């Protein structure tokens, strides 16, 4: 048995011993555990599971042990993920700090900044949100206007950020701000961490077509931010942001699997809502064709994720797969939601009506939610621009 | 499921690329076409390929093969797709050798496989009977005689059928059977009395034959596998064929795409390179994403053969359907993006377009494979 096989066996045993049975069921949105000052748990088991994973460092398996992480390498982390999936273990902690800010602080932060922020993310003590887009700076992010003025020992921040997911519930926000208004677009931008629990910071939820309002607009009016909250060099925030966007896009490419939605797969739904004929084929042949086209693409996508991982493990640095996954993953998730809606027929159309089952009600919410996937984190069109220029080398 | 090639397989791929570029470039196909070559490939090229070990790659060592892997053979086929190289590799090795490896008895393996491995004996699979691929709709009959069987019926679209030395013939040996039941496979010398072969020139400058069987007598020893139980062998052979063909198609699609991207960087219109136009950039980027997905399904399909996986049939339909669609998309876009020159015979792009449509029809078009995949998945 190889070391990795040993590791897999020990991970499996530990999970079986430590993951409460109630934490091995599919998760609903209400049951997700988010960190922060006002952290709460939907159940005692969820708390226990979180604490055990936290103490093991497995809320952030690949981060250094001394900063609260698990110290695993990429292969080990993948094994942990696979074993958790096999057992149905829930993600013990959700936070943008884990997925996005943490990796950027580990890469660009000073030693002090790492010690200040990383352990708190690992332990779920701070809930983070992201301040990138502005009302006037969406796809053209580099035209952002939120100003951070140098006032000696601190910056004075004024402006507003939009699509700040869960900003009304977050403790801190990581922001792109303009520190040099005279420099060329990308060159006068800095990456700043801002404590939201202070005067001048307000977050207002924006109602969405899905009925949710997790996206906010966040306003900054004469907000004082210590200089020590600057990550990376002054006016060099664009490179931090780009590195962080990579993490966001990777997350978005995978989000289809982690988004709370109906408990049935499209195939299960088709068997239930469409049914088979005497030949064992779905009665609606047009729907069958749509469904199988999606299923085949989805499988190809899964294999491509896996191939990308293998390429990395083999040290192939010339791996352009990550650059395509945001586009392909989100577009396919949208297609899946369309297929699911079509399969449910009029049972997918209820809104806030108890005559419909939870799964049925979730199906159109999920469909509406999916529309944001190919917009947030860089639109599909921006992603195609990136592929055309960076991968194919097409001229500007 | 290895989705990346190992060192040895990469080396093999590089060697294949060098050889094909030097010896069997696209120009070689033009020569075959323009001279209406009787054989349909150059004997000398097949000799070279055999010497490189291509004909013996999937044959077990016990029968003079290299027992390398389908991942290796797939890498070679991908490269051969890039130069549209014509050879008996697919018909004789992927189909012929596979059928004997999967279904053959010890005598058949010992006598036939070493000859395939050396490139001296060429096989073809006589299966299809109508305008579409319907492998279980077989009307050719095999009637039992005192010494063996008597074959009657007609076959069409038999790849390399006119030049093969031996044919693997799919026939119905139990007249009361229908669909998959009652099919048998026979190894038949192509020169046997009663066989009439007609070579056809095809759109892609390659060939396929129509073959008529009129009271063709074969011995009992000609039977491949058990009488009436040919389907499981055939199904497995076809899946190997579908995946290997998908590998070749991937090579063709990649080559066509790369040539197109180069053209976008070269061609000036309105005072700028046409590659600056977003209308073209996005379409090129979408093709790139499709090709990356295509690479994954081909590699996993080849691995599924090597690992004898139970989901082989699903992977075969996944690979063939995807590559049918991607090769069609890329060749259509390539012609369009080249503009006027794209529809000239002088440019090679048209040859890829033609190959894509022929490859599309071999062993199932996309709707065949989507239907099959859905059925395999229980809906």
From TrEMBL, chain A:
Residues 235-392 form the Acyl-CoA dehydrogenase/oxidase C-terminal domain. It comes from the Bacteria. Keywords: FAD, Flavoprotein, Oxidoreductase. Residues 129-223 form the Acyl-CoA oxidase/dehydrogenase middle domain. Pfam families: Acyl-CoA_dh_1, Acyl-CoA_dh_M, Acyl-CoA_dh_N. Its cofactor is FAD. One of its GO terms (cellular component) is plasma membrane. GO terms for molecular function: flavin adenine dinucleotide binding; oxidoreductase activity, acting on the CH-CH group of donors. Residues 30-125 form the Acyl-CoA dehydrogenase/oxidase N-terminal domain. InterPro entries: Acyl-CoA_Oxase/DH_mid-dom (IPR006091), Acyl-CoA_Oxase/DH_mid-dom_sf (IPR046373), AcylCo_DH-like_C (IPR036250), AcylCo_DH/oxidase_C (IPR009075), AcylCoA_DH/ox_N (IPR013786), AcylCoA_DH/ox_N_sf (IPR037069), AcylCoA_DH/oxidase_NM_dom_sf (IPR009100), Mycobact_Acyl-CoA_DH (IPR052161). Belongs to the acyl-CoA dehydrogenase family. This is Alkylation response protein AidB-like acyl-CoA dehydrogenase. It comes from Zhongshania antarctica.
TrEMBL record, chain B:
The keyword Oxidoreductase applies. Residues 6-119 form the Acyl-CoA dehydrogenase/oxidase N-terminal domain. Residues 228-372 form the Acyl-CoA dehydrogenase/oxidase C-terminal domain. Residues 139-216 form the Acyl-CoA oxidase/dehydrogenase middle domain. Pfam families: Acyl-CoA_dh_1, Acyl-CoA_dh_M, Acyl-CoA_dh_N. Coiled coil: none annotated. Keywords: FAD, Flavoprotein, Oxidoreductase. This is Alkylation response protein AidB-like acyl-CoA dehydrogenase. It comes from Zhongshania antarctica. The lineage of its organism: Bacteria, Pseudomonadati, Pseudomonadota, Gammaproteobacteria, Cellvibrionales.
């Amino acid at each position: 048995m190889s070391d990795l096989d040993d590791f897999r066996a020990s991970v499996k045993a530990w999970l079986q011993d430590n993951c409460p049975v109630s934490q091995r069921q599919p998760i609903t949105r209400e049951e997700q555990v988010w960190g922060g000052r006002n952290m709460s748990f939907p159940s005692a088991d969820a708390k226990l599971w979180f604490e055990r994973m936290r103490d093991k460092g497995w809320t952030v398996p690949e981060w250094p042990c001394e900063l609260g992480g698990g110290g695993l390498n990429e292969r080990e982390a993948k094994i942990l993920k696979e074993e958790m999936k096999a057992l149905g273990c829930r993600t013990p902690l959700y936070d943008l700090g884990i997925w996005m800010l943490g990796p950027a602080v580990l890469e660009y932060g000073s030693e002090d900044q790492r010690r200040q922020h990383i352990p708190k993310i690992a332990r779920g003590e701070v809930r983070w949100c992201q301040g990138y887009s502005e009302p006037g700076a969406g796809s053209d992010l580099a035209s952002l206007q939120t100003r951070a003025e140098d006032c000696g020992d601190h910056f004075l921040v004024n402006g507003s950020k939009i699509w700040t997911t869960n900003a009304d519930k977050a403790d801190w926000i990581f922001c792109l701000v303009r520190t040099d208004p005279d420099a060329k677009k990308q060159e006068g931008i800095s990456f700043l961490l801002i404590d939201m629990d202070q005067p001048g910071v307000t977050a207002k939820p924006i109602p969405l077509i899905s009925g949710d309002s997790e996206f906010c607009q966040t306003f900054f009016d004469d907000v004082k931010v210590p200089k020590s909250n600057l990550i990376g060099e002054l006016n060099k925030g664009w490179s931090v942001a780009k590195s962080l966007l990579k993490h966001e896009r990777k997350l978005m490419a995978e989000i289809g699997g982690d988004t709370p939605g109906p408990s049935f797969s499209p195939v299960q739904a088709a068997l239930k809502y469409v049914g088979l004929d005497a030949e064992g084929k779905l009665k609606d042949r047009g729907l069958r064709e749509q469904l199988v086209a999606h299923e085949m693409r989805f499988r190809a996508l899964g294999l491509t994720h896996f191939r990308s991982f293998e390429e990395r493990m083999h040290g192939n640095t010339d791996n352009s797969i990550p650059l395509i996954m945001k586009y392909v993953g989100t577009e396919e998730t949208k297609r899946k939601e369309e297929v699911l809606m079509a399969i449910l027929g009029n049972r997918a159309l209820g809104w806030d009506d108890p005559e419909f089952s939870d799964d049925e009600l979730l199906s159109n919410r999920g469909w509406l939610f999916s529309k944001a996937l190919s917009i947030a984190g860089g639109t599909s069109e921006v992603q195609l621009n990136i592929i055309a220029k960076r991968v194919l080398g097409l001229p500007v | 499921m290895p989705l990346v090639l190992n060192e040895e397989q990469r080396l093999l791929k590089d060697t294949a690329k060098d050889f094909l570029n030097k010896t069997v470039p696209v120009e070689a196909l033009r020569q075959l076409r323009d001279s209406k070559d009787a054989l349909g490939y150059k004997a000398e090229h097949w000799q070279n390929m055999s010497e490189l070990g291509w004909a013996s790659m999937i044959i077990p060592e016990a029968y003079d093969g290299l027992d390398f892997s389908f991942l290796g053979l797939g890498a070679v086929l991908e490269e051969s797709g890039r130069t549209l190289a014509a050879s008996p590799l697919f018909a004789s090795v992927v189909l012929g050798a596979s059928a004997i490896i999967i279904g053959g008895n010890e005598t058949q393996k010992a006598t036939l496989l070493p000859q395939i491995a050396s490139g001296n004996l060429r096989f073809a699979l006589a299966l299809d009977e109508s305008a579409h691929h319907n492998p279980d709709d077989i009307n050719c009959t095999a009637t039992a005689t005192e010494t063996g069987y008597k074959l009657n019926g007609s076959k069409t679209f038999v790849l390399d059928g006119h030049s093969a030395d031996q044919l693997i013939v799919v026939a119905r040996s139990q007249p009361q059977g229908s669909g998959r039941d009652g099919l048998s496979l026979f190894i038949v010398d192509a020169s046997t009395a009663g066989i009439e072969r007609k070579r056809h020139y095809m759109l892609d400058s390659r060939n396929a034959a129509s073959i008529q069987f009129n009271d063709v007598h074969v011995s009992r020893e000609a039977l491949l596998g058990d009488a009436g139980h040919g389907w499981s062998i055939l199904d497995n052979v076809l899946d190997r064929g579908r995946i290997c063909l998908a590998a070749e198609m991937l090579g063709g699609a990649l080559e066509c795409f790369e040539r197109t991207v180069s053209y976008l960087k070269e061609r000036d219109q309105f005072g700028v390179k046409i590659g600056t136009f977003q209308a073209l950039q996005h379409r090129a980027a979408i093709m790139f994403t499709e090709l990356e997905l295509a690479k994954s399904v081909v590699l996993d399909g080849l691995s599924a053969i090597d690992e004898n996986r139970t989901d082989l049939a699903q992977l075969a339909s996944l690979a063939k359907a995807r590559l049918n669609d991607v090769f069609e998309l890329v060749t259509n876009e390539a012609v369009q993006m080249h503009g006027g020159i794209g529809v000239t015979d002088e440019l090679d792009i048209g040859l890829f377009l033609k190959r894509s449509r022929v490859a599309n029809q071999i062993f199932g078009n996309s709707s065949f494979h989507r239907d099959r995949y859905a059925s395999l998945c229980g809906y």
